[in-house]
């Protein structure tokens, strides 16, 4: 038997394993009362370090008591909380109760960074040291990243990663600041850990975070609030914290910014500033669950409808685990237009992608298809044109003021099968996409697409993904919007869409670009229904067709 006075490894505040305690009748009553009521235990025996007062009892606020009750009574809980609300400390207090009064419980404390997780464990260990001897379990292991108690309960602290809990069996997983975990790691983590979670009947998952953009935390939260998953949502307003009032709010905004206050204290999900779409519009965007989701990354939101016209644009990557192959399919039969399918995959070979694109295009009534060909997208376009002989593949060309061929434009039968995106064409596509979405003429309903929209920001006079994020899906939408900005789009649909949405900014950009298309008119000059004057130019192609350009 270990000498109790020496404690565990000489620490007199910790009871070693094997030390026997003689309980008084009063201590037994207190022990049973604490075991039955975690709030009673926390209020009477939990100690924390206050910045102003040092070591003090943990006097729970009302909202903290509500969090403890919700976690105690439910298996799956997700909490959206402002900064500095004691969220981690509250969960730590419950975990301490959980391992003390239950045998053989394995708990994982996971944070966006390993030092953060270990700091949370350190708070638990500090509170443990100040428990009375008769309430402590003997210590078997007491390390920086883990502890083990004599009753068989264990706690592990680590970073949130796919390997953090792989192969282990855990009764409770606490994910702290989950919104700050990079999206790819969050995806891998849940793919790895969910089988571990679902294997038990009483396992618990606690997700606690301040929002940071529309990522997996946003998805879980939204699904929880709409009853689409098993998580019980908890939300705390900044004003529920004692001492925080309008005066405090105004002072905080003066010392930081409105944007920072909205993110950290109002708990708004917008993760970036200076985005393509206004913050007001982004707040209204909602995603839908697809009617079918395939393992290759294809999500379907509507089955094809007879007589409907569909448009697809494809953004091609190298398929090596970094950027994504992406395409979106839009029903352009009537307003508002709607995304009916979305594809996102960063491992598929570029040689396989055309098969997927062709199959989806055929499914959606031989959809019009535009491929971005700046890089290896040319291979995808060539396969669709030469091997599949796909007739819906859009060909593109464009002339500048001096008559040279530029990388862009739109017109079937022209120089390129696909679009070489340039700064002018990207500006047109972004402007049109912004106009469509903000005027409720185009519905964005895919989760990954909306997530990318919230981090698609202005950089160096263009729009691209914010640092650490992707823009492949949103760029496919930019390509789709560019097609809609062209005069030939109305011929595809027999409508003049540009009259209602075309902005002066886009008109000015097009004046600099002078698009042309294929035609078989016999007139040298003519005026179309918009009043635009055109001049035909012989392009000496094999079919006897003519180009035309603005004059």
Write the layout of secondary structure elements.
Layout: H1 25-36, H2 38-45, E1 47-50, E2 54-57, H3 62-73, E3 76-80, H4 87-100, E4 106-111, H5 114-129, E5 139-142, E6 146-149, E7 154-159, E8 172-176, H6 183-198, E9 204-209, H7 216-225, E10 232-235, H8 246-255, H9 258-264, H10 279-284, E11 292-293, E12 298-300, E13 310-315, E14 325-331, E15 337-345, H11 353-363, E16 368-371, H12 377-387, E17 395-396, E18 398-399, E19 405-406, E20 416-417, H13 423-438, E21 442-443, H14 447-453, E22 456-459, E23 462-465, H15 472-485, H16 489-493, H17 498-501, H18 504-511, E24 517-519, E25 525-527, E26 533-538, E27 546-550
Helix pairs in contact: 1-2, 2-4, 3-4, 4-5, 11-12, 13-15, 13-18
Structure, briefly:
The protein is of the alpha/beta class and 551 residues long.
């Amino acid at each position: 038997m270990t000498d109790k006075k020496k404690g565990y490894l000489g620490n007199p505040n910790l009871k070693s394993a094997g030390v026997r305690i003689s309980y008084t009748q009063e201590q037994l009553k207190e022990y049973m009362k604490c075991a039955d009521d975690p709030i009673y235990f926390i209020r009477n025996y939990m100690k924390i370090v206050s910045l102003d007062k040092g070591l003090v009892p943990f006097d729970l606020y009302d909202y903290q008591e509500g969090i403890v009750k919700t976690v105690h009574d439910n298996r799956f809980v997700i909490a959206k909380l402002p900064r500095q609300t004691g969220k981690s400390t509250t969960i730590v207090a419950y975990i301490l109760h959980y391992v003390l009064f239950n045998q053989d419980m394995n708990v994982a404390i996971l944070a966006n960074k390993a030092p953060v997780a270990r700091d949370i464990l350190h708070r638990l260990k500090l509170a443990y040291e100040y428990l009375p001897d008769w309430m402590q379990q003997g210590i078997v292991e007491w390390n920086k990243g883990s502890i083990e108690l004599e009753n068989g309960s264990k706690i592990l602290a680590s970073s949130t990663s796919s390997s953090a809990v792989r192969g282990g069996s855990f009764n409770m997983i606490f994910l702290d600041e989950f919104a700050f975990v990079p999206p790819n790691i969050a995806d891998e983590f849940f793919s790895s850990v969910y089988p571990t979670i679902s294997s038990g009947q009483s396992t618990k998952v606690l997700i606690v975070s301040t929002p940071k953009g529309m990522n997996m935390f946003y998805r879980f939260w939204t699904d929880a609030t709409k009853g689409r998953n098993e998580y019980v949502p908890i939300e705390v307003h900044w004003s529920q914290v004692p001492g925080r009032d309008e005066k405090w709010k105004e002072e905080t905004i003066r010392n930081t910014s409105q944007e920072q206050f909205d993110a950290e204290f109002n708990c708004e999900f917008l993760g970036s500033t200076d985005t393509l779409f206004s913050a007001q519009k982004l707040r209204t965007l909602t995603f839908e669950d697809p009617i079918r989701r395939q393992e290759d990354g294809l999500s379907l939101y509507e089955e094809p409808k007879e007589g409907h016209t569909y448009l697809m644009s494809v953004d091609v990557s190298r398929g090596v685990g970094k950027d994504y192959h992406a395409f979106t399919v839009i029903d352009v039969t009537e307003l508002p237009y709607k995304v009916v399918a979305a594809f996102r995959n960063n491992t598929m070979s570029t040689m396989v992608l055309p098969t997927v694109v062709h199959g989806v295009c055929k499914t959606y009534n031989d959809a019009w298809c535009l491929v971005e060909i700046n890089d290896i997208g040319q291979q995808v376009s060539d396969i669709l044109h030469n091997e599949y002989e796909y007739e819906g593949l859009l060909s593109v060309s464009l002339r500048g003021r001096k008559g040279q061929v530029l990388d862009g434009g739109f017109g079937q039968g022209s120089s390129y099968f696909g679009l070489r995106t340039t700064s002018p064409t990207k500006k047109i596509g972004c402007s049109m996409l912004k106009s469509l979405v903000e005027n409720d003429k185009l519905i964005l309903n895919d989760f990954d697409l909306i997530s990318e929209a919230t981090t698609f920001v202005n950089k160096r006079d263009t729009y691209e993904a914010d640092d650490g994020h992707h823009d492949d899906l949103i760029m496919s939408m930019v390509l789709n919007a560019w097609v809609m900005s062209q005069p030939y789009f109305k011929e595809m649909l027999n409508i003049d869409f540009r009259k209602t949405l075309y902005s002066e900014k886009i008109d000015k950009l097009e004046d600099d670009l002078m698009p042309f298309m294929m035609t078989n008119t016999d007139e040298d000059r003519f005026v179309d229904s918009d009043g635009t004057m055109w001049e035909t130019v012989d392009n000496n192609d094999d079919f006897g067709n003519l180009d035309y350009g603005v004059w």
